[in-house]
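Encode chain A's predicted structure.
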Amino acid sequence: MKSWEKALDKFLHRYINEPWFEGALLCGSYAAGNQNKFSDIDVTIVASDDIGWQEKSNCYVDGFLMEYIIQPVYKYQEYMKSGYENNAMLNQNMFAYGKILYDKRGVVKKLKQQSIRDLKKPFKHKSKYANDFMKYHLWEMYDELKSLKHDGYHTDLMYWTLVNYLITAYANFNCLWQLPKAKIEKFLTDKEYAKRYHADRLPDKKFTNLLMDCFRAKTKDKMSAVEKLYNYVIKSGGGFDIGKFRGYQKIEKK
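Encoded structure for chain A:
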């Protein structure tokens, strides 16, 4: 047994005899086998539905940082439902491809099976109202960026805010998984890395190239790079004309 496995086993023995303990799952880089010296050990603990609390914490065990979450079954199911509705399948990905460590009554296995089913389902398209407002906010941020540039102010914060929102918008317009921002470059440029996390619904090659251009652009090239990405994302969402924008939907009367 490796030193990190001994530490993990030691950590889990704090909980396995608790009456509410249903099971545990190893997730993240240690489950995928691509951990490095900066990696923590991600552990998901499933509790019975009768507990009245949830916990997300960190602690060191024999020099290894444990990042763990404890929640009842119904909370995981709620987050899975919400994640599917928002194209963010982090919980499903975690259960589908994590390694079951303990499973007293088969609850963790059922969550795993549910997650695998969810990952095979296509995402639903957002409403026209939601997409129109997303395009409006993109236009607004891009316009603010150009204004800052014109007036000679620093643009880095607005530049990266826009790039971040363009990534989110592109995924929504094209019904793709919202990739974790800290790992997006790895997912898009390293096929083996993406394969380990079973990320098979990725942006197209042109979007990836334009995004990488934004990441690598020197100061003098940033406006040109983000303009190209902005135009591509807006086009993928059906286009946008600020002069014709009308965010309209009916609401309930009080």
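The mean pLDDT is 93.
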